[in-house]
Amino acid sequence: MMNLHWMKSLLGLGSVALWVTAAACGSDPVALDPQVLDPQVIKEVEFAASLNIDLAQMEMLANGVYRQDLVVGTGDTLVFGVSAQVGHTGWLSDATVFSSGPFPFRLGTDPMIPGFEDGILGMLEGGTRRIIIPPALGYANDPPPGSGIPQGAVLVFEVVLDSVF
What we know:
Elements lengths: L3 H8 L1 H13 L8 H4 L21 E2 L5 E6 L11 E10 L4 E10 L7 H7 L7 E6 L21 E10 L1
Antiparallel strand pairs: 1-2, 2-5, 3-4, 3-6, 5-6
Helix pairs in contact: 1-2
């Protein structure tokens, strides 16, 4: 059977349970649009000017997530298994806000889209980071109902790591 972390990264948290259930029943895994799986899709997106996105100034992780420290913190490092509080704003590529506010979590154990988790890993407390997430590591073809996030959306976040505890 495939590595579960890889599956979470490939399919997104919402689809993992479906894939695991289907695999256990002998069915095929959830089919996703091939473009949703392509991490290079970010390079083809036209971002709203107000988002100030310059991919050339950002680090691209091996899985296609882009990240950029806007402010480097000076506190503790965010690692798996640690609890933290972040403030965030999430935009679609056209600058439509779909999420904002603070939330606490435990990295690696609380439900979170894989691209967000990968994007904030290693942040220092007090820091601010921009993260761009390809569809396969966001909500892919299964965005939360009523969220305003379309299927296959590239997600942009600005995250402030308020505290690590």
